[in-house]
Amino acid sequence: MTPPLRVGADGVPLTPTPDEARSELRRELLRPEYNDENLLDRVLRWVERRLDAALDVASSAPPLTTLAAMLVLAGLVAAAAWLVSRQRSSARQESRAGSVLGEERATAAQLRRRAEEALAQERYAEAVVEGFRALALRQVERGLVEDAPGLTAQDVARALAAEFPDRAHAVGAGARLFDEVLYGDREATLPQATEVLALDDELAVAR
Asked: How far is CA 36 from CA 29, 32, 40, 65, 201, in A?
């Protein structure tokens, strides 16, 4: 049920602050009925209901108050669209994510050489992908990660976080970067590629 627009004693609507508006939008999006493929349509219908309620009450309100309410609702629409696009992008990445090791069976040393060559040639996205694959395969070779069918970067991160809790954050960040670069078409930078290779070096000797 849509909560009524707050009004003061004189009947003038009490426009929510931006923080209140964002909090209300987050609470609305947490409702289970939004967890389907028509999420954007549902959010827009919710905003439309709020807009209708605001127009009904604001018809007799001062112009500046009405304008402020409309601006807040417009911000809610923009925020809703951004949140939905982020959620759908993450869902696409998860659905496309395959084995971190790929179909080709190379050694960790071979993958590492490819990553270093890509780094030297400023192909940073390739350096990130091959570097994380080298990291993952090296830990498989060490027996710390199970070479299961469909092994994903997130599987590797969870396994290594259990083995090396002090490096859990770094491994998790590396896995997310791998997915974003390989499946989300994200560009990588020199520092990011360098960090992945440095993490591979650290984990190679970690006990």
From this structure: 11, 9, 9, 35, 42
